[in-house]
Amino acid sequence: MNSLELLREFSTPLISDALDSLGINGGLEGIRPIDINSKIVGPAFTVQFAPVKENQQGNAADYLEEVPPGSVIVLENQGRTDCTVWGDILSKLSLNKKINGTVINGMGRDIAEILSIGYPLFVKGTYMKSGKGRTQMQSTQASVVIGSTEINPGDILVGDASGVISIKKEILNEVVSLCQKIDEMEKIILQECLAGMPLSKSRKKHNYNQYSIIK
What we know:
Layout lengths: L2 H5 L4 H10 L10 E2 L6 E12 L20 E13 L3 H9 L4 E8 L2 H7 L3 E3 L1 E2 L8 E6 L3 E3 L2 E3 L4 E5 L2 E5 L4 H23 L4 H7 L5 H4 L1
Parallel strand pairs: 2-3, 3-4, 4-5, 4-6
Antiparallel strand pairs: 1-5, 2-7, 2-10, 8-9, 10-11
């Protein structure tokens, strides 16, 4: 399996532990799935939005044709809670195009319809108001920042019930290797504790709290 396929086997908490060992955050604060059973893995296709200025009509965000199959769409709407930038039509078209999912720093709507088709959507919250006349597309495939994490086009996003995390494509193989080591260590610790060893002793034995040693 390649690194992307291997990532599907790891949870975002495990990936976060691997990034912690490298001194990297990667987590997208406040972003969560509308369906806890959703899982996404794929390269980021970024879209930046900005508020519509006074006396401006705003433009339609026609970017979907640019998105390659297998991508994860990342919509940076500055965490706004007063309007949405995603709904059921975009979800249905994305599903048809085999896009892996969408991550929004902001709101989503048409949630019942999106859940019914099984499209993976990760948001800060839900709200019914359209973005028409309120927000407009500023750019595609440029670096965006969500929380304290910068996401560049092509960076790898992983999302599950615990949230979404971003991995720089340049360190993908290293992160996968660390995930494998941490996963194996945790399995050994669990086996030892189930056999009667105190958790504190097993953690100390394997330097569990010192992630830099894992490297």
